[in-house]
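> forwarded from #structure-qc
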């Protein structure tokens, strides 16, 4: 191992140092054999101005008369909804659900409570 390192050091020291800026003929010939650049430079595409789209008309789909009728209908609806006597959908749903919920609870609550109490008693008595 020492012999190999010694011979490498000797070879390195025998080579005269190269002058900066000059390359050996072996280096220049190897560089001359290299192909050109792998990627050719691309020109940046020139963006052309966007064509103008169709102009939007300022007239709406509705005539002025239809527009005013629709606006008055919405105003009337708004007044009806926010008046004191108006019922909301939530009120209607609550009124409809109360009897249905009462019927379901009358039919199912006793057996539900009985089953849950029995399970809890069995759980407690099993640990004692």
């Amino acid at each position: 191992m020492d012999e190999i390192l010694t011979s490498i050091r000797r070879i390195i020291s025998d080579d005269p140092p190269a002058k900066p800026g000059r390359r050996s003929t072996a280096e220049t010939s190897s560089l001359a054999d290299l192909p050109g650049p792998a990627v050719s430079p691309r020109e940046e595409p020139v963006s052309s101005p966007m064509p103008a789209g169709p102009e939007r008309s300022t007239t709406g789909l509705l005539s002025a008369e239809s527009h005013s009728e629709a606006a008055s209908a919405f105003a009337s609806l708004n007044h009806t909804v926010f008046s004191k006597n108006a019922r909301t959908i939530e009120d209607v749903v609550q009124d409809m659900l109360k009897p249905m919920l009462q019927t379901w609870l009358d039919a199912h609550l006793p057996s539900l409570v009985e089953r849950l109490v029995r399970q809890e008693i069995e759980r407690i008595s099993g640990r004692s």
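QC bot note: The two ends are 82 Å apart (CA to CA). The longest helix spans residues 89-127.
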